[in-house]
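Hey, I'm writing a tutorial for new members on how sequence and structure tokens pair up, and I'd like a real worked example in the thread rather than a made-up one. If someone can provide the structure for the chain below, I'll link this post from the tutorial.
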Amino acid sequence: MSIIYDYIVIGAGFTGLQIALQLKNEGAQIALLDNQEQPGGSHRSGSGPLGSFDRGFRFYPASDIAEQVLHEIESTMGYSQIYSIKENSPITFSTNEFKDFLGFGEETPYAYDLMRPFLTDKRCELSKPFNEIIFDYQNKLGDVFHPRSMVTKINFESDAVNVIVNGSKTFKARQVVYAAHIKDLLPLVPAEFLPSKFRQRLGKAHVVTAICLDLLHDQVVSERENLHVLQGNQKEELVPCFGLFQRPFEKDGKMVQLSQWMIFIPRNQSEEPEETVSLLKHLKRQIKRAYPNALDQVSAERIFVPECMGLSETLKSQGELVKGQDERLWVASPELNNFPQLLGSTLQSRWILSHLGFYSGSLAQGPLEPDSSHIETEINL
């Protein structure tokens, strides 16, 4: 007789890891499924010369909510303080000099809602690489994680929810928490299970990703630790480049420095090789314009395109709880939250856990806007 789990969590990004660990700690019998070899989603560790560094640009705006999120991670994992607050004051490069960044003017760039949380005067700097935090979560979860398990269908039977993996294997559960990319949900569930209005909205929502460029410089390029917002000149299309220089460190007897850069783009654009090459050239051009010698001595370079950084406002602004009509499917996709990266993942996990009855802390507030506004809406599927 096959096992019927209490919960199956689909998607082992940071949202799924947090939900799975809380459910396991509460004594639930769970399975965590992901199509990758390692958990963590875009937070997985990389390989090669830059493998020990987190992949891609990371930015954690300092706020009361951000500090609550980090305190809860510390408490869950038994860490001492893993972050410090740093001054940020975003800067840009214009007319041959660095200046305070004062905004984009009358023209609003693509994915501005995702950029907005970065434009703050303080940020949280982690003292522990995030890929190490992911590894610690994996160790605590143990054998509940099932790698290389691509979910191909979710069927709802009277006695259980059947989750079909790799087209053949079936996992059974009383309830399913879907923490993978929201756009990938549509082909997995029966068409009649999702209301037509929700399907239409989900179909129209644009998936936003990014091109991330990590550079290891064989020299100290900059002492500036501010967020860089490089915009090019007035003749160029407004495609802002975000970047940070990390603190210099010694390697092989010399001081080196890591810088990490990012451009937001539509996911379909990232699938075109010519577009990707063009945007990388644009990104490097902006770096070289601000730091003429920055690309002269680069010992390692890593290009990283996360599957998803967020959704267009079409879907995100709704601030909704998405659940199955008989409460056997709960949608925890982090893209439904209005905060980026680990903040959105943690807030989304806490909101879903609160509705499952396993969390009653201060973060059980749903997908808040970065300015703390909150639209109370619920959709029953």
